[in-house]
Design a protein that fits this description.
Layout: E1 2-14, E2 20-34, E3 39-43, H1 50-56, E4 65-70, E5 73-74, H2 81-87, E6 88-91, H3 104-114, H4 119-132, H5 148-160, E7 166-170, H6 178-195, E8 198-202, E9 214-219, E10 222-227, H7 229-233, H8 236-241, H9 248-258, H10 270-283
Parallel strand pairs: 3-8, 3-9, 6-7, 7-8
Antiparallel strand pairs: 1-2, 1-4, 4-5, 9-10
Helix pairs in contact: 3-4, 3-5, 4-5, 5-6
This protein binds adenosine-5'-diphosphate and magnesium ion (MG).
């Protein structure tokens, strides 16, 4: 679905006279293959290159060196840009910058309207997209009356209504409260598991990577670790080197295991942890 080979990207920093004063190599030797239907998370501390990588995935920027292909289309060929943007939708951090209309359903209809989709089909798509993110009953509301998490789900529905095969979300939960974050992650997970849409989720909240098939850890413009969430969580010292800490549930699970309490390796969510603790208590006859 997406392939990157030896990708580097450099930003030119310019002074007031537009002279280049320094060059920032934000990506350096990035290689990966993402299969259709995969759910990939990308984590890394601030400035590690996550957003720069995300922008390559729908040709917002193109590599300084190397090549990115989306559905076999080279992103640096301008003739491919439109097709690539229809294949890969983007969701950003701030929902207020992504919602334009005064009514929820009009906002979700905006994308397909611009694509020239027939009116009847537009409303079918709007219905289905709002239903998928659990926002159908707010269809006639003003986005101003929604919480951050609800707005972000409307933004996701807006991308969904354009029927992309892949959605890239760049820290979609960074501005949300815990409940809003959970709802957005649930909606994103559902898009992947139920609709089969490729998800690339960029986050710095470790606990948000647990539903993904594979995780890329970024540091200084490179992918420095790659594996399943459990593979990543088992490597706490290496993560710390890259400025990343384990989520609270994983840390607590480690402590319990050291105390000989039986917690399986694939327990990542608070609910799973609580059930395991209760199960242990039952076995002890409590
Ligand atoms: P992340 O999303 O992981 O925080 P970014 O991709 O935004 O990282 O940034 C990677 C590096 O590129 C950082 O060192 C950042 O300062 C630099 N950078 C990002 N955007 C620009 C820009 N528009 N001009 C110059 N440097 C930039
Ligand atoms: Mg970023």
């Amino acid at each position: 679905m997406i392939k990157a080979r030896n990708v580097a990207f450099e930003y030119n920093r310019r002074d007031n006279n537009n002279n280049v004063v320094s060059i920032e190599r934000a990506l350096d030797g990035v290689d990966f293959d993402i299969k259709p239907g995969e759910f990939i998370s990308i984590i890394g501390h601030n400035g590690s290159g996550k957003s720069t990588l995300a922008k390559h995935l729908n040709a917002l920027i193109t590599p300084t060196e190397g090549t990115v292909w989306v559905d076999s289309l080279d992103t640096s060929d301008e003739l491919n840009t439109l097709k690539i943007r229809q294949t890969t939708g983007m969701v950003f951090q701030n929902p207020d910058n992504q919602i334009i209309a005064d009514v929820v359903e009009e906002d979700v209809a905006f994308g397909p309207e611009n694509m020239g989709v027939p009116t009847e089909e537009i409303w079918e798509r709007v219905n289905k997209s709002l239903m998928t993110v659990d926002m159908l009953e707010r269809r006639s509301d003003s986005p101003n009356h929604l919480s951050g998490g609800q707005k972000q789900r409307v933004a996701i529905a807006g991308v969904l209504s354009m029927r992309p095969r892949c959605i890239v979300l760049d820290e979609p939960t960074a501005m949300l409260d815990p409940a809003g974050r959970r709802d957005v992650i649930d909606a994103v997970t559902k898009l992947n598991k139920k609709e089969g849409i490729n998800i690339i989720l960029i986050t710095h909240y470790m606990e948000e990577i647990i539903h993904s098939d594979r995780v890329f850890v970024m540091n200084k413009g490179k992918i420095v670790m790659e594996g399943s969430p459990s593979y990543i969580f088992e490597r706490a010292p290496e993560l710390e080197e890259y400025g990343l800490g384990l989520p609270a549930v994983t840390r607590i699970a480690h402590i319990l295991r050291n105390g000989n309490i039986n917690i399986p390796a694939d327990v990542f969510s608070p609910d799973e942890l609580v059930s395991c603790i209760l199960e242990n208590l039952r076995q002890y006859g409590c």
